[in-house]
Design a protein that fits this description.
The complex is a heterodimer of chains A (266) and B (263). Helix content of chain A is 82%, strand content 0%. Chain A has helices at 3-12, 20-43, 55-65, 69-102, 104-118, 122-133, 137-161, 165-173, 178-215, 221-230, 234-262. With 266 residues, chain A is an all-alpha fold. In chain B, helix 2 crosses helix 3 (113-126) and helix 2 packs parallel to helix 4. The termini of chain B are far apart. Chains A and B meet through helix 8 and helix 9 of A and strand 6 and helix 4 of B.
């Protein structure tokens, strides 16, 4: 078989080997195809431009928005809310999660109630949280926190539980106390999977921030999208959505790169 | 030399889940004494309870009845005096070879930083891993990872070394090499060792004394004085001698009888 033929074979083989360059090409191709189909749908008049503008118009609107001060302000506010709430979640979830996995009594006490709360739909909590915290920053942070903490704490507890029992026993036989085992063995051991879970949780924050900002806010990307809807400014609405996606993608890639750098030993 | 480890009439039962389920007896009254510097091997069929007995000595499990004394003191829990090497790789992936070995000194309050480095380098050389000092352990072979684990355990300066089938996951050539290296290390260190295995040849080659255990629940069915039979000197050629051959066959027959009981 010729070289290109072989490369193609590997691509379609069940769980075949893939290369970074090929993957990148395919990833870009998918974007191009997506935009081409979108273009054709508008071009053929399948959907009127009023509801679905041309890709170029949306991208142009986005480019314009990204140099508009008021919009950048909205972006900044949303980013700050997301990171603020996310960090509050992490600060609470990491110690509690590790604690849950370290002591059976904590796990047995906390897990059922966490399991219950995390099944409460976050959008349904928004009205309640507004009653409690008003429509200021506190309620946004509360929505995000409710939407992430209860998931994250279980993920962290699981990460901590999954470290080999022999690691902990090694700690004991080297003379470490439980606290020292947690700090010097459990934490470094679970760190790679924990960072992965943090990355995924950060993604959820962007879902909840838009929900929160649509319901009650006078700033933020969610608020911008929602106010453009009132004037049926479809390109602006779509551009706003796109910006959220791009921020998500960039954050995700940044954390992945950091992960590779931090955990070279893997 | 007097008895260093005293195991006194140890019984162990495992609780089972479920209503009315009877506890499972695992160790059925074992007593023995181990001298300082002695290499003792626990041999027995898989799942017989020999590992559990060793873990009781290490303080990682408690006996249902009976006591273990170490240097005259009752064992109540795990600590630095009872070093343990596991079958599973326990060298830490986030540390290099040298850092892993140095970790063994981390919880010693009898020494300062310069000594920690000295000790780490000493054991790095003793297990022959100088060339791999800065390698992360995921980049080295399984045999090397076990040498790291042994060096780390020794760096903690334990009174006794407990080894739970440390070479169980390794290929035959690597295992032979590590057995010889382990004997050299033990000669240098003069520590009491309890080594658990179900490999007859390994047991006879390494041991001063072998304790042959029955299928579960574990009882000592024979105590084999290997030093008396083949002498304390062991080299690669030891395995070719008649004395070794006879002793190995005898132990193998004992092992077969026990294995048959559970097969």
């Amino acid at each position: 078989m010729s070289a290109p033929g072989q490369a193609l074979g590997a691509l379609v083989a069940y769980r075949g080997a893939t290369g970074g360059r090929v993957n990148l090409t395919l990833g870009i191709a998918a974007f191009v195809l997506f935009i081409a189909v979108w273009y054709l749908i508008v071009f053929t008049g399948l959907v009127t431009e009023r509801f679905l503008p041309y890709p170029g118009v949306v991208i142009g609107t986005m480019a314009q928005l990204l140099v508009t001060e008021s919009f950048l302000n909205d972006v900044w506010i949303s980013v700050a809310r997301v990171w603020g709430a996310f960090l509050l979640s992490v600060v609470a979830a990491v110690p509690i999660g590790i604690w849950m996995s370290s002591y059976r009594i904590v796990g047995a006490l906390v897990e059922p109630i966490v399991d219950f709360i995390r099944y409460l739909p976050v959008p349904a909590l928004v009205p309640l949280l507004i009653i409690w915290f008003g429509i200021g920053e506190a309620s946004k942070v509360a929505v995000l926190w409710m939407g992430t903490f209860f998931q994250l704490v279980l993920l962290i507890a699981d990460d901590a539980k999954r470290i080999p029992r022999e690691f902990v026993e090694t700690g004991y036989t080297l003379g470490a106390k439980p606290r020292q085992i947690t700090r010097s063995i459990v934490l470094p051991s679970m760190l790679p999977t924990m960072v992965d879970n943090l990355r995924i949780t950060l993604g959820w924050c962007w879902t909840w921030i838009i929900v929160a900002e649509i319901v009650a806010a006078n700033s933020g990307i969610g608020h911008y999208i929602w106010s453009m809807r009132r004037f049926l400014k479809t390109p602006e609405v779509m551009a706003g959505i796109l910006v959220v996606g791009i921020i998500g993608l960039l954050t995700d890639q940044a954390v992945r790169i950091a992960h590779r750098r931090l955990f070279r030993y893997l | 030399m007097g008895a260093f480890v005293q195991i006194q009439d140890v019984f162990k039962e495992f609780e089972t889940e479920g209503k009315g389920a009877a506890p499972i007896p695992v160790i059925d009254g074992v007593s023995m004494e181990i001298r300082e510097g002695e290499f003792v091997v626990y041999l027995g069929p898989s799942g017989c309870g020999k590992t559990t007995l060793m873990r009781i000595v290490g303080g990682l499990e408690t006996a249902t009845t009976g006591d273990v004394l170490l240097g005259g003191e009752r064992v109540t829990g795990p600590d630095r005096r009872k070093g343990m090497v596991f079958q599973a790789y326990t060298s830490f992936p986030w540390l290099t070879v040298l850092q892993n070995i140095k970790f063994g000194t981390k919880y010693r309050d009898d020494i300062g930083e310069p000594e920690r480095n000295q000790i780490a380098n000493h054991y790095l050389r003793l297990v022959g891993l100088e060339d791999f000092a800065d390698f992360y352990v995921n980049r080295i072979s399984g045999g090397m990872r076990q040498r790291v684990a042994i060096a780390r355990t020794l760096a903690a300066a334990p009174d006794i070394l407990l080894m739970d089938e440390p070479f169980g996951a390794l290929d035959a050539q690597t295992r032979d090499f590590l057995q010889e290296q382990l004997l050299e290390i033990c000669r240098a260190e003069r520590k009491a060792v309890i080594f658990v295995t179900h490999d007859v040849e390994e047991a006879v080659f390494l041991a001063d004394r072998v304790f042959m255990f029955s299928a579960r629940p574990a009882r000592v069915i024979e105590e084999i004085d290997v030093n008396g039979a083949i002498g304390p000197e062991r080299t690669a050629d030891t395995k070719e001698t008649d004395a070794f051959f006879h002793l190995r066959n005898h132990v193998r027959d004992l092992m077969r009888d026990q294995a048959r009981a559970i097969a």
